[in-house]
Design goal:
CATH superfamily: Immunoglobulins
Strand content: 25-35%
CATH topology: Immunoglobulin-like
Order of helices and strands: HEHEEEEHEEE
Strand order of the largest sheet: 1-6-3-2
Number of strands: 8
Oligomer: single chain
Structural class: alpha+beta
CATH class: Mainly Beta
Radius of gyration: 17 Å
Amino acid sequence: MRNWMRILGAGIVLSTGWAMAQTAPPASPANGTFDLVTESEAQSWTSVGPMEPTDFKTRDFSEDNGRPTCSSIANNDADNPQIKITEPTIEKPMITPIDIDLKFIQAGSAPIRPETFRVCYVGLVTMDITKRITDRAAVSAQGLRVTGAQLPRGHHRLVLLVADQRGRLARREAVFNVL
């Protein structure tokens, strides 16, 4: 009985985290910034445990209208498109607000499908936070630029995904070290 209650309790925590991701973050000041992730979300989504399961398989994007999910993995044998982060400089600690500039590099003649773009926050649970960016910036086949993203202090792991017309996936992981 106790083990069952522990499992039930864990389900409630995960359900609460999911509900938080589906709720819009608090309104930001009028200075043009927005909360990409709030401090309470970062705390509830992050833990010391494993960051992401390692048993993912390459998936066929003909399912789900060819849109990647937070658990999609690129086929490393394919000639995949790429995502280049031109801003901010990921290797350096940063101070918020952060401007984010992404360039999509197509592979061959297959154009990028902007509607497949995803941004996922990876912690104990992985949350799709795409709408927080797409509500403020237009995604094109060339990339996107968003300004004023607020992140709390600490390390934040994001996974960026986009697919091309042939269903090939570009996946880029980025760790934001916010001071």
